[in-house]
Design a protein that fits this description.
By secondary structure, the chain is an all-alpha fold. The protein contains eleven helices and two strands. A hairpin with a 5-residue loop joins strand 1 and strand 2.
């Protein structure tokens, strides 16, 4: 038996062992959940909270990349723990949904609810974000390539340090609240009023969604290497800013800045495309 076959057999044994361990863990978790739902034993609940506390940190870390530095990560985790407790109380282990999948929505919701209470996106910040988006759209449309920080700063008539400060300030504008007034009619319609029922069959929506994904993929493909990598690792690989920072060899704040620039650049390009389509 050659070396390659030995390595392959060893890898197969490891995979089988991992699958077996995962299956046994799932069975143990299921017993724990059923026991808790039948008894509501506080000790079991505490065990579940401790078991999934690291998952709360993971979700909080994913959200933190879009927030300014004055928002404490520990605060996000505290808000998320409240969502975790709510998820534990309401989770039904008999349904074919994994707890982490169910809990993620509750944890994110709890964090966003607290951020909304703190008024984390004042109007002035959104205005600054729109100003940056327009700068990227107009300047890159004129240059036909990515605009550098220096060029954006010159366009806005500010220095580099002010631009970087602007990036940090506008991070929180990248998150959207479904409760925010989106269309100022007599009833004050919010974004939530425009969220479509995904269970309904809509062939036109599927075509539009496919086209939108294609356009977005092309826009992402035109980002510079570092910004594209940050977007890929964050949205496709589900890594946190800390994990991305280790891969790139940069700080969390630098990852956050790259992410902010990439989103603003994408928004600018998509806005430019939208305007060109409307003008036709």
């Amino acid at each position: 038996m050659n070396r390659e076959m030995v390595v392959e057999d060893k890898n197969k044994e490891l995979d089988d062992a991992k699958k077996k361990a995962a299956k046994e863990q799932d069975e143990e978790d299921q017993k724990l959940w059923v026991h808790y739902k039948n008894t509501h034993d506080q000790r079991i609940k505490d065990t579940l909270i401790m078991k999934y506390a690291s998952f709360v940190k993971y979700v909080a870390g994913r959200i933190a990349v879009n927030l300014p530095s004055n928002v404490e990560f520990d605060d996000l985790v505290s808000y998320g723990i409240l969502g975790l407790i709510d998820a534990i109380d309401k989770y039904d282990p008999c349904r074919a949904v994994k707890f982490k999948t169910y809990a993620k929505t509750r944890i994110r919701g709890a964090i966003f609810d607290e951020l909304r209470v703190l008024d984390w996106t004042p109007r002035s910040i959104r205005q600054k974000a729109r100003k940056l988006e327009k700068a990227y759209a107009k300047l890159e449309g004129k240059l036909g390539r990515d605009a550098t920080d220096e060029e954006i700063a010159e366009y806005l008539k500010i220095d580099i340090s002010e631009l970087h400060k602007l990036f940090d300030e506008t991070k929180k504008s990248l998150l959207l609240s479904l409760d925010e007034i989106f269309y100022d009619d007599e009833e004050g319609s919010s974004r939530f009023d425009f969220v479509e029922n995904q269970k309904s069959d809509n062939p036109q929506l599927k075509i539009e969604e496919s086209e939108a994904k294609k356009i977005l993929a092309e826009a992402i493909g035109k980002l510079n290497d570092r910004e594209r990598l940050v977007i890929t690792l964050y949205y496709y690989e589900d890594l946190t800013s800390k994990e991305i920072g280790k891969i790139l060899g940069v700080s969390d704040s630098r990852v956050s800045q790259l992410h902010t620039k990439a989103i603003l650049r994408l928004r600018g390009r998509l806005a430019r495309l939208r305007d060109s389509l409307i003008a036709e």
